[in-house]
C-alpha cells in the first residue's frame, strides 16, 4: 500500500497538517500576475480507502491504472462516480465512536500536470477539499492539510523539474475532523474549490492584514496595517512597503534589514499604524 506511512496521520486528531503554509489574505495571492489556474479536467480514480491506492499512482500513466476524468473544482459525489451525497442532521453517517472513521472510506486520486521553472519559488493552493488533501509532486510527497472548508497551500519548489510537472492529490472522504464538521450538513467528497499554482520572487509580500477602528467621540478613524514579508534569504536594506488608499490615505515604510529572516524563517511581520 503506497500511503501506509501517512495513514495514521490522515486520521490522527492531533495531526492537522504537514508542510502546509500559514494561511494568508487571499487577495494578496490573487493579485499576483504569475498565478496559473489548474481548474478544469483532471485524471481521477475513486478507490475504497487510502490503502487501496495503486502502487505508483502518483506518477504512472493514469490510463494504465483505470483512471477516468473529473472536473475540478467539483465534488465527485455529483459527477456520476456512484458515491452519493449523504445528509445528516445531528447523527453521524456511520456507526463508529470518536475519533474513528469507517474502514470503507471512499478516496479520490487526482492527477494533473503543469509547467514550472525549478528556479522559481512555486506554491500550490487548494481552495478546499473534503475531507483531507495529501499532495505529491513528481512522486515526491509534499504535505497534507485538513479543514474541508479552508484552503491549503504548499511550497512545491524543491520537487520541481524543468518543463512538465506531475501533480497528485489524495482526498479521503472521511477523517476524524468529520466529527466536528457534522450537523445539519450535506456530506460530499472531493476538491470543491479552485486549485492554482503561483510563483514569487526571492522576496515577496506574503500577507497583509488591515485592522480598522473608529472613535465616536472625536469621529476619527484609525487603522493598523500588518505586512508579512516572505524571503528565501536574509532581508537586506533598501526594501519598502507602500500603502495607498482613498483620498489622502497613504504611507511608505522602510523594511529594515533583519537577520532573523532566512530560507528557514521565511515570514517576518512588520506593523505600521496610521490615522
Summarize the structure.
The chain is mainly beta. It contains three helices and 20 strands. It has a seven-stranded antiparallel beta sheet with strand order 1-10-9-12-6-3-4, with no helix packed on it.
Strand order of the largest sheet: 1-10-9-12-6-3-4
Strand content: 35-45%
Distance between the termini: 59 Å
Please bin the fraction of helical residues.
under 10%
Low-confidence stretches: 262-267
Helix- and strand-based class? mainly beta
What is the radius of gyration computed over CA atoms, rounded to a whole number of angstroms? 21 Å
Give the CATH architecture of the largest domain: Sandwich
Largest β sheet strand count, sense and barrel closure: 7 strands, antiparallel
Tally of contiguous helical segments: 3
Q: Can you tell me the overall shape?
A: globular
Overall mean pLDDT: 85
What is the CATH domain class of the largest domain?
A: Mainly Beta
Number of discrete domains: 2
Number of strands: 20
Question: CATH-wise, what's the superfamily of the largest domain?
Answer: Galactose-binding domain-like
CATH topology of the largest domain: Jelly Rolls
Question: Which keywords apply here?
Answer:
mainly beta; 275 residues; 20 strands; Jelly Rolls; single chain; 4-stranded antiparallel beta sheet; 7-stranded antiparallel beta sheet
Structure description:
With 275 residues, the chain is mainly beta. It folds into 2 domains: 4-200, Sandwich (Jelly Rolls); 203-274, no CATH class. It has helices at 4-10, 26-30, 178-181, and strands at 17-18, 35-37, 40-47, 68-72, 86-88, 107-116, 121-126, 129-130, 133-137, 140-145, 152-155, 163-172, 185-187, 190-191, 195-200, 203-215, 220-231, 239-244, 250-255, 267-274. The strands form 6 sheets. The chain has a 7-stranded antiparallel β-sheet, with no helix packed on it. Strand 16 and strand 17 (220-231) form a beta hairpin. The protein starts with a helix and ends with a strand.
